[in-house]
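Researcher: We're teaching a course module on how sequence relates to structure. For the next exercise, students receive a sequence and then see the predicted structure as tokens, so they can try to spot secondary structure elements on their own. Here is the exercise chain.
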Amino acid sequence: MTFEEARAVLNRHCRQLDHKDASTNTSAQERSNSAGVDRAWWFANTGTMPDWRNARTVAYLCAYVEIAGSRIPVQGIRLDDGYMWPDRAVMRALLDSECLEIEGEDFCLTPLGEALLAPRIRIDGDTVTVVQN
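Model: And here is the predicted structure for the students to work with:
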């Protein structure tokens, strides 16, 4: 998948849930985010953190799971033409609310995270299915 295709997935989820395009992930990153392997990095920026239940946060999580699968690499999602780095504020909110946990070098969904996605995304092992609305 190219960055343009991944961005289209992200925008589709954002438009469906938040009625506007994604505000971050606007261009491919040339390399992985090596700082992402440190859990503390995700919490280092104490700026605004969205509510984990808001439409934008859910849209981003839906898109990342659709693009990467149920394990989202903490260093960024590898694409054909670069990387899509997960949005730090979104991932911090999802980690803080225990919708995600970090296992090795991946964000993994918890049961609460799977429930958050359930109306839009079904996960069965490594298979991710987008529910058509």
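Model: If you want an answer key for the exercise: Strands lie at 71-73, 77-79, 82-84, 100-103, 106-109, 121-124, 127-130. The longest helix spans residues 3-18.
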